[in-house]
Design goal:
Layout lengths: L1 E5 L2 H14 L6 H6 L4 E5 L20 H6 L7 E4 L4 E3 H17 L7 E5 L4 H12 L3 E4 L6 H11 L3 E4 L3 H11 L5 E3 L14 E3 L1 H6 L13 E8 L5 E7 H14 L7 E4 L9 H10 L2 E4 L2 H4 L2 H10 L4 E4 L1 H10 L12 E5 L5 H10 L4 E6 L8 E5 L13 E2 L4 E7 L10 E2 L6 E6 L6 E2 L3 H7 E3 L5 E11 L5 E6 L3 E4 L2 E4 H9 L4 E9 L13 E8 L9 H9 L10 E4 L13 H9 L5
Parallel strand pairs: 3-13, 5-6, 5-7, 7-8, 8-9, 12-13, 12-14, 14-15, 15-16, 29-30
Antiparallel strand pairs: 1-2, 3-4, 10-11, 11-22, 16-17, 17-18, 19-20, 19-21, 21-24, 23-24, 24-25, 26-27, 28-29
Helix pairs in contact: 4-5, 6-7, 9-10, 12-13, 13-14
């Protein structure tokens, strides 16, 4: 596990305040000792790949000396997206050049830099360039509307935006954030597209002409990246991970799944989704190459299978939905995927029959269920030895060696570990996790952090996942659902209240609620997958019925695509509880009995 200790907290906070004001930045751990505090970061994870030899932070991952020490050929391929490729030496050099551009733009250690790139070799380079500058990566969804991107930029306070999105979307985003963004870096562009004086626009030729500089070395507890999800009110919620927590996850993943220098990891997840940290950080830690699957390829399962086969991928990590589509429409009978040795899946429920089908189609691969909210990246695992039966429940397994878990039936009133009552054997409860892979906080939201984190008497921190689990007689954990109304579809976390709020903001809609139609409900779900259904009540001003296409188009301007309901149904009223709140469970039953279902 990875452990760290901070002493002299008040003195350290004063040092940090001075650092922000003057721009001074400690370049080594000895700096802390000179100023009255001790920061100790001791990696002790055992690994057969020797991937933990010298990495002290994420900045070290592309260090040529470290890579050479673990047996990496610097002239071997490190990245490819099927069109462009990069060796390890080129990867480090490109990150260094882009990092120098950030420094010239005035980026300081701890500043937030937004990465708004479609998936490619360049997107991986940009992430490591931000880290090399001592800044904090804020990955954004390049396919989301401006109304979804702008609040994240504003909350993060990102003054620099690295992007390759279409000009109209970029202009909409900049208009929405005002003068927060001062510079736009377009690493794949040769000509400017923005009006003079709007922002500083940096193009590919400037990056190519820059020279790499000595990277800024962060403290382990400094923020490394912030992944944003939608909160219950629709406002963005930033999950802050430090270099220590990110490196702890990378060590754990590289160890548990035995990553090697001859591995080729298929990067399926987008950068703003926490699964991508597997290829971004665990991969280079072990010297494993990444196959960055471009967004257009992901839309066509046959194209995806062709790329993975042609590039001889050895490890795959994705949400179940991608694997289900791969089996259904990926032309697997025409592909040689014998190179795949391990398939990891997580983020949502995998129907057993569908999982069994995928396992039979990929007989050379080992399959594992990965569980862990973005706040901890991973905390449990379950290796499958054989395809499951149709009615067999797939457990989330057991804690991995770097996490402690508790199942809490009653959290008590003061939010501390000692106040909570643990569930007895076989009793459902909320899963709490203590692990060095845990986030430091929610960005700018101490209230959310306090609500999600329980303190030990000895100062330890437990993350309250909000997930209901139960321990089976064999000791494995089963996932039962959410304590609140957050759901996961295709691996994306969606707050149903946020969708409700967006629906109520549409002209003509007075009331609305969103329910999840499960594939097991026997409804008209598309492709046998779970989907969102919106139930709306009109405001009575017009007698015209709600046009579902109009509602979904309006939602598409307010929400990311994965959060837009697949169906919109008008009802005369919504069921409510005795306290007057919308009864979502009864609303689900209302939809189940609806003639349009």
């Amino acid at each position: 596990m990875v452990t760290w200790r901070i002493d002299g907290g008040e003195r350290r906070r004063r040092v940090e305040a001075r650092r922000r004001k003057t721009g001074e930045f400690p370049l080594s751990l000895s700096y802390g000792a000179q100023h009255g505090y001790v920061c100790q970061f001791v990696p002790t994870i055992e690994t057969t790949s020797r991937s933990d030899a010298t990495a002290g932070s994420l900045v070290d991952l592309l260090d040529p000396v470290r890579l050479t020490a673990i047996g990496v050929d610097l002239h071997a391929e490190a990245l490819t997206d099927g069109v462009r490729s990069s060796t390890w030496a080129e990867y480090a050099d490109a990150a260094g050049r882009l990092s120098a551009v950030f420094a010239d733009l005035g980026v300081q250690p701890g500043d937030r830099v937004a990465v708004h790139l479609t998936k490619s070799v360049q997107s991986f380079v940009a992430v490591h360039a931000v880290l090399r500058a001592g800044a904090v990566v804020v990955p954004l969804d390049p396919l989301a509307p401006a109304a979804h991107v702008a609040p994240v930029l504003l909350d993060a306070g990102a003054a620099v935006l690295v992007t390759d999105v279409r000009t109209s979307l970029l202009e909409d985003v900049l208009d929405a954030v005002g003068d927060v963004v001062g510079a736009v870096v377009r690493p794949l562009a040769d000509a400017p597209v923005l009006a003079d004086g709007v922002v500083v626009e940096v193009l590919a030729d400037t990056i190519a002409a820059s020279s790499p500089r000595v990277p800024v070395q962060p403290h382990p507890e400094d923020a490394a990246y912030v992944i944003y999800t939608s909160g219950s009110t629709g406002a963005p919620k930033g999950i802050v991970h430090t270099h220590a927590s990110a490196l702890a996850y990378a060590h754990g993943a590289a160890t548990l799944y035995g990553l090697r220098t001859d591995d080729r990891l298929a990067n399926i997840a987008p950068l703003h989704f926490d699964q991508s940290t597997f290829e971004l950080y665990a991969g280079p830690l072990a010297g494993a190459a990444a196959i960055v699957v471009p967004d257009p390829v992901l839309r066509f399962p046959a194209s995806l299978s062709r790329l993975v086969a042609d590039q001889r991928a050895t490890v795959w990590y994705s949400v179940p939905y991608v694997l289900i589509q791969l089996a259904a429409r990926g032309a697997l009978d025409e592909r040689d995927l014998s190179s795949l040795r391990w398939v990891l899946f997580g983020g949502e429920h995998f129907p057993p029959a569908r999982l069994a089908d995928v396992m039979r189609r990929l007989p050379a691969a080992r399959f594992s269920n990965v569980y862990g909210p973005a706040e901890v990246n991973q905390c449990t695992f379950f290796h499958l030895d054989d395809p499951p039966g149709d009615d067999e429940r797939i457990p989330i397994g057991t804690p991995w060696p770097w996490a402690d878990v508790r199942i809490v039936a009653d959290a008590g009133t003061d939010g501390t570990v000692t106040d909570g009552i643990e569930a007895v054997a076989g009793e459902p409860g909320e899963l709490w996790v203590r692990t060095p892979t845990m986030m430091s906080q929610y960005a700018n939201r101490p209230d959310l952090t306090d609500a999600a984190v329980a303190e030990d008497p000895d100062g330890g921190r437990w993350y309250r996942t909000g997930d209901l689990v139960v321990e089976r007689p064999d000791g494995l954990l089963d996932f039962l659902g959410r304590v609140d109304n957050q759901v996961k579809l295709r691996g994306h976390r969606i707050e149903l209240e946020a969708v409700d709020a967006a629906l109520r903001g549409i002209e003509g809609v007075a009331e609305a609620t969103t329910v999840v139609e499960r594939a097991t409900d026997g409804g008209t779900t598309l492709g046998g997958e779970d989907r969102l259904v919106a139930l709306v009540v009109t405001d009575g001003v017009t007698s015209e019925p709600v046009d579902p296409r109009t509602v979904m188009a309006a939602l598409g301007r307010r929400l990311p695509r994965y959060a837009v309901p697949a169906a919109v149904v008008q009802v005369s009223g919504l069921p409510r509880t005795a306290s007057g709140k919308v009864d979502r469970r009864a609303a689900h039953d209302l939809w189940a009995a609806h003639p349009d279902r």
